[in-house]
């Protein structure tokens, strides 16, 4: 392996021939192609990240970035068209898509779907197929041919960003729409009215607005006549004109409108319009670039626009400032650097400066690139073609070969000045010597040597019979090596201008030559596709000592590091090879250009390698040494680059005189400014005095108003403190009364519980008897079923034996048939084998005969091919000579016209610039004067206003605090209104709950009547056991479900009864604890609510007084003031509206209204509380078991009309204490509805905690009653067991409940 490696550093270039060649990434960097690479360029930091193309491909044809900026697809030309999908975050390749369905070697356009999962690609000639890829699976979804029968070219495809159902393609005179369906892409006919769809030249789908659920699928279609059509789906909605008649070439849409790129370097901006969709806003020209705007891209934040042009240039426009830009000015900035528009014909690297010099014959420009700062330092165009360039080691001079002359130019700060013109026409090779004192220039077959400082001709080197293609100096400038198209390689000694080494190989046209630092070995490469090593041997002269085959690839340039560790070679395919030195043929290759590499240069410090290609790009490589110590040592010894520039004396004198004029103008402006300042100071002092007086009077009025409000506030606080104490005493008395009432209720419930326990024991004994009867009947049924199934099993066994005998007979028949078929198949195979062996022998003889004939024809073809190549070479030479003669004639004619035109244009330009400079200077002087005056005024005003600002800020803070207090009062009133509305809603809910309970009670009575009627029928058959059994089954099926013949229920009845007893005891204990806790909470809540009500009423009255006081103060004559008023404690009110007696009477009326409102609210709340307590008295049953028990006979523990079926409780289920909670307004979850009770019966129980009141309402409404839960779990109780237990006992409507405020409980 080589001791050095190459790493890409920077690319100066752009490729305009790639479809959709500019995009924005998510981080704001610009994505564009350069050479054989994709570049991610950051405009802020001027840094690049590179994605190299595939080495085997022939070039990049199209790129595409997904809508979310996370994926990028790159199409490349190869034997089979290929697409590479990259991750934009990591820059790693995720998929490579290759398929023969494209019918071409390339894709001309790509587009991602809105979700990024599907990719469509428009194939190239000759098939022009549209391929739909599911790229994550590397699978082709569908293929459709888009061109017409004549096979016209297609050049664009696009996915709609919405549901990705529509696909649009455009071509030369073709516009088509396809709908993406399950069966593939189906064509859709667009409705465009009278407009010709064949005029479509560009397209862009409009993204849906953010936050909109509607998918409009709008398409903007640019036409070659300058119109833009808007299609929604397949229908045309509107048409817009660019008003200049130039064809639309590219379109880009964004949230505020869209941008159209046109021919002639015009960019037109359209903005959204509510009436006509869009309207033309403005148009800008890219000055000096009158060519097509091929592509447009808008940044993710929609602040910048990038436009790529046909001449390999890219410009940016600040979209956010486009409204204030002037349309006749140059508002675009170059993206990165101005690039060459054609093949690079000359390249050189400077020694003392970080400069690279390059030239291009297409745009006729010379550019100096600063590779350290990544900028173009100098750029100049000429009227003649440029063929070669060389830069002096100091960087202060350049040598440029034009079509008519060779010019030595001085590199000034902003221009190139001609120093000397030499009569060498069409110089294609020139270079400075290593020291810079000489330069060599090729004049056809002659090499001329000149002194750099005197421009004298030192000598001419003649000897080549063909054009000289490459020249190289030795390190000590004593020798010159040259190679030409005549196959000759010469080493010249400059001391006597004679050849020292020579070697001629006819038929090989050399393209590049170089020598080792000691000039012992020469290397050259040419059209024979080999690298030759020349060595001078004693006796035989210069001979070829080594030939390295390049693998059938033409090498265009060679470069050798001075220390001879590695050799670089450039290829015709745009690649760069790194050969190990001494040459062994081993190399590493990297493809950097999309066209042949025309120039290759190495920097003097071995750190850089620069290549220039026919694609117009300059590629800067970093040469990294694997020896870290040597690299560090060279870095320390490295000399800093020079920063000096050349300036002519005339320019320096002109700038000095201009500075003197400006200084004089500044002095005059200063005097005028001081006079105007004094005048304005006097005016401002008077104005400040007026403002000061006004602020003082306002502040005094605000202070008096504040003192009056503060006194009124203190009086109201004292009044409401007294009221609060009285309310607390009343609340304490009510709580004590409630406590006594609840204690009496608990004692009554305990007595009721003991009675229910005795009733439960009787029920348990009857259930045991019923269970034993059912077990006996079930065992008898099981025995009968067992006998029936044993008989059926015996019959099935006999059938199985008969089937087995039949199966054995069929197996014997099958074996016999199988044996006969195998014998027939073997016989046929032998016959077929013999037949095809004979045919194979015949084919082998025919193949040998054809191979011999093919060898003879190949030899004839090779001889003819060599003759054709010789003829082609002669034709090319003649054509080149003819072309040079025509070029010379044309250049002379152009020189005369261009010089006249240049003189006239420069005179006009100078006049315009001088006028503009004079106008700008005058404007600048006026602005400076105005700025100085305003700065002085601002300072003086700030000094005078600062004390007043402090006082104003303090008063604003006080007013802000008072406003906040007023806002709190308003919020309190709103909360009270909300509480009242909640009470109304609760009342409605309770009424609905009562209706539901009545309906359930009626249903339960109906069920009991039906069961009693059925039971009376069964009692009539007590003397007939069989009929009685059937009737009992019928009764069970009707009221308890279908009869099941499964195994008997197992379990110990006594254990179940004990478990039930234990559960009920625990329930009673928990309910007692909860009752005590809820009583305490009830007392605390009542106290808190009473305090809140008092505070709210106090705040309402206080707010009303303040409002009236403020209204009265605004109408009165004097400021704010007041004095203590009436005997009810109301504060003073502002005077000016009436007498103190009238004010006191108004306050009394207000208090009476408040008292009436509070009394009315209390009455409503007491009615609602009574209703709530009445509903809480309903019985809630305990949870049922998982299995049902049969009905019990002879149950008579309760009146006959209250009996209902009982259900068995599973011994494994023990409900928790809080199981009584349920849904809204109904029984708890998983429990049967409560037992119906006739009017006047006991109704113990609690409200559902999950009902309309929620958990908080359940806590505030009282404790859960133990006796109610027990009664619910055991069923209805006798009517005489509920004495003293009714809704009135809760204090909702008795004498003890008066004075109690129920609204606090439900708040």
UniProtKB/TrEMBL annotation:
WD repeats lie at residues 461-502, 590-631. InterPro entries: CFA-57, WD40/YVTN_repeat-like_dom_sf, WD40_repeat_CS, WD40_repeat_dom_sf, WD40_rpt. This is Cilia- and flagella-associated protein 57. PANTHER family: CILIA- AND FLAGELLA-ASSOCIATED PROTEIN 57. The keyword Coiled coil applies. The keyword Transport does not apply. Residues 1229-1239 have a biased composition (Pro residues). Residues 1114-1142, 1188-1258, 1274-1307 are annotated as: Disordered. Pfam families: WD40 (PF00400). Residues 1295-1307 have a biased composition (Acidic residues). Residues 645-672, 699-972, 1054-1113, 1144-1178 form a coiled coil. Residues 1199-1213 have a biased composition (Polar residues). It comes from the Eukaryota. Residues 1114-1138, 1241-1254, 1284-1294 have a biased composition (Gly residues). It comes from Chlamydomonas schloesseri. Signal peptide: none annotated. The lineage of its organism: Eukaryota, Viridiplantae, Chlorophyta, core chlorophytes, Chlorophyceae. Keywords: Coiled coil, Repeat, WD repeat.
